[in-house]
Amino acid sequence: MSFPLGNRRRVSATLPFSFLVALSFAVAAIAGGSKSPYCNNPVQLAMVKIWVDGDEGEYLAGLTASFGATLPEEKNKVPKLPAVFSNPLNGCSSSSSKLSGSAALSVRGDCDFVTKAKVAQSGGAQALLVINDKEEIEQIDCSGDVSPNISIPVVMVPKSVRDELTKTMANKRVELLLYAPTRPIVDISVVFLWAMSVGTVFTASLWQEFGISEQTEKRLNESSSKESSDAGTDSDNDQETIDISVKGAILFVILASVFLLLLFFFMSSWFLLVLTVLFCIGGVQGMHNIIITPVTRKCRNCPQKTVRLPVIGEVSILSLGVFLLCVIFAVAWAVHRRASYSWVGQNILGICMMINVLQLARLPNIKVATVLLCLAFFYDIFWVFISPLIFQQSVMIAVAKGKNTGGESIPMLLRVPRLIDPWGGYNMIGFGDILFPGLLITFTYRFDRESKKSMGKGYFVWLMVGYGFGLFFTYLGLYLMNGNGQPALLYLVPCTLGVTVVLAAIRGDLKALWGYSSKSSAMINPTAEV
Fold it and tell me: Where does the signal peptide begin and end (predicted)?
């Protein structure tokens, strides 16, 4: 999910502006012939750039009215206009402030929008900005006079504009430039996000090829319980795994819903700080394991110096050094997490954490996978599409955008800045959209490996292709829905779980997959189940 960002501030909105634009056309279609021909202008997402004493500053996002002049798409086609507050501020009667050649600002209320536009135009204003009485932006329709004949652009902006511009205009000269740049159909950042998501799942699946010890690999190949017992004492790098059960899958989705509601109702700066600390802990653990595990495997027979630490006990100097570097990296990211380049560190920590999680948590068979992914499927749809009917806004989208945190989003996301979008912002994907399908894909890789299936007759390659197409359909749906947040699992579950079930049914493997018991899980951790 993505949202446009300004240079230094985010404009809050309960619904994406593009949804409001689509809604305005729907209302116009329903109204039919009752609309005046003067009130059928296309509603535009307006960019209001601000200059303070000649220096370019922030920009605001607004929504144009269904009447008045339309805004050009290029900023070099419009002049900068001095900002002036109407007097009276409601803009319902002739202003005592000089509006000639300016961008007039008035607050909503006391009279209809057409009257405000007429008053501003009669005073010589070149544009009118109507400040809403709440932070959300709404469409401005015709009311009162059915033939307003307004020739200046009319734009609604959020409530916060009033206080900010009042303070700035008290002792500084403020100029505004209004235009409506078009957004590209596809931003190249989506390609990078797609590649990171697919690459994370692919790496996590193949990690056991170079991320487990040689002794463990030998045990898996020879299936010898004696060797398993003998090697258990000297396989220090074997990670304990957790097999997810049906009850665990149901409980997880319930707890995820409860946690999402907690974030929605109680999200604040301190709550976000707690999430950031937890994210850093998980990221440090994942990064440490990803670095140290292959190194210790390759250097298993090399002499390693150790040091004894209080409480922890004896630990290798190499492991301690890598751990300290990971901690420094995570702390540096946390300190600079609001910087424009912080997405790089966030993605590195997030990818490391997800690869580590996909090594620790495993699906034992398709039965559990079906329960978990089907519940996640409906979980995603409910909290994105159905929750607005109960909570007046999408709970999932509100949490992802950083509700009540000053626009700072939660760190459990992969995000890439939009590179060619004039509105800026980020394209994002939640960890759940990678971890849920990733659990199934890593299971199919283990199944293919232990069943000695070839690439064409196995399931892993087909599911990787299905996951890639599922992400493609997700972003296709995002653009077809004018940028509204999409429940990615709506597309990913059919393209992964659906592909597995169909292929297994055709090949006659469905029964074997349904009650499958992994050899590697039984050997590495025979009792762990959640």
Answer: 1-28
pTM score of the predicted model: 0.76
Spatial separation of the C-alpha atoms in residues 39 and 46, rounded to whole Å: 18
Domain co-membership, 170 together with 297: no
**From CA 338, how far away is CA 231, in angstroms rounded?**
47
Q: How far is CA 15 from the centre of its chain?
A: 15
430, β-bridge pairs: 413
Q: How far is CA 169 from CA 90, 101, 105, 305, 488, in A?
A: 18, 17, 12, 66, 45
Determine the angle formed by the axes of helices 366-381 and 432-450, rounding to 10 degrees. 160
User: d(Cα 453, Cα 353) in Å, to the nearest integer?
Assistant: 29
Structure tokens at 507: 């090949």
What is the tens place of the pLDDT at every residue in 3-28? 333 333 333 333 333 433 343 433 33
Q: Which helix (H) or strand (E) holds 46?
A: strand 45-52
Residue of 406 and 35 predicted with greater confidence: 406
Asked if 163 and 205 sit in the same domain, the reply is: no
Q: Are the C-beta atoms of residues 126 and 103 closer than 8 Å to each other?
A: yes
Active-site choice (141, 243, 380, 448)? 380
Name 128's bridge partners: 104, 154
Counting the structural domains of the chain, the total is 2
Q: What integer best gives the mean pLDDT of the chain?
A: 79
Select which of 187, 238, 243, 433 is catalytic.
Answer: 433
Q: Is 236 a catalytic residue?
A: no
Where residue 255 falls among pLDDT bands split at 50, 70, 90?
very high
Q: Give helix then strand counts, H and E, for the chain.
A: 19, 13
Amino acid code (one letter) for 110: D
Phi and psi based region of residue 32 (left: phi greater than 0; alpha: psi -120 to 50; beta: remaining): left
Residue 404 lies in a domain: yes
Q: Is 238 a catalytic residue?
A: no
Give the residue numbers spanning the domain of 454.
Answer: 188-219+241-515
Mean pLDDT computed over 153-158: 88
DSSP letter (8 states) at residue 157 = E
- Of the candidates 396, 373, 372, 363, the one whose C-alpha atom is nearest the C-alpha of residue 493 is 373
